């Protein structure tokens, strides 16, 4: 057990008495000569002298005929997956926090400096020999949120500083608090522009005339600095429909479409009696 007054997650992957793996906070536990066995192969059989029971964090000591090495702490939840074993990759993924701190100057660390991350990279400790060095290192710490759409709100942070004097005495400076504000991203705006009135002669109508030859479809989005950016290339149009209103004369009016252009753009077209529907193929 990790004894540091913090919450931790333990996963036991049991595939048999000879195949047991322990994962702590989503990371595989590596045993060495200093660690006890993950599985103590001393099965507790049902007996009339001792009441058989399920225990968490305790071992049956056969010589003493008693339970020992109890877990002392708090449990938030216990889950048992019956009949199958969860994969290590699934457990690692469940513990991979999308919000974390990063240090962008690992290649610039010199002698006397160090960078240490806490669990899930929610805390980072930097050490340096001078005020100038520690200032530069603090500027290299960044907040990263890998969610596709980060949840809006503020993320509080606390900076604690300890100074070691030349005589070896340590002084703790007052803590500094701050916030990282994650703003709600504005929704993208779909815009269509072009001529709304079409003036053509009778001959052009008989041979066919483009209805919306100058149409422009764009997607824009307002950034955090208030600047409107064109993000059309980042989005895909699902479908569009073209209607005639009032309905067309079924005997004299009809739609036509450029087959070669449709094929080159890999667009699927659906036809009905009164509507031309263009839908992007998957």
TrEMBL record:
GO biological process, one term: cell adhesion
Membrane topology: Single-pass type I membrane protein
Domain Calsyntenin C-terminal stretches: 114-194
Gene Ontology cellular component terms for the protein in this record: cell surface; postsynaptic membrane
Pfam families: CLSTN_C
Tree of life domain: Eukaryota
Entry keywords, A to Z: Calcium, Cell adhesion, Glycoprotein, Membrane, Repeat, Signal, Transmembrane, Transmembrane helix
Subcellular locations according to the entry: Membrane
Claim: Nucleotide-binding is one of the keywords in the record: no
InterPro entries listed in its UniProt record: CLSTN_C
Protein name, UniProt field: Calsyntenin C-terminal domain-containing protein
Organism annotation: Teladorsagia circumcincta (Brown stomach worm)
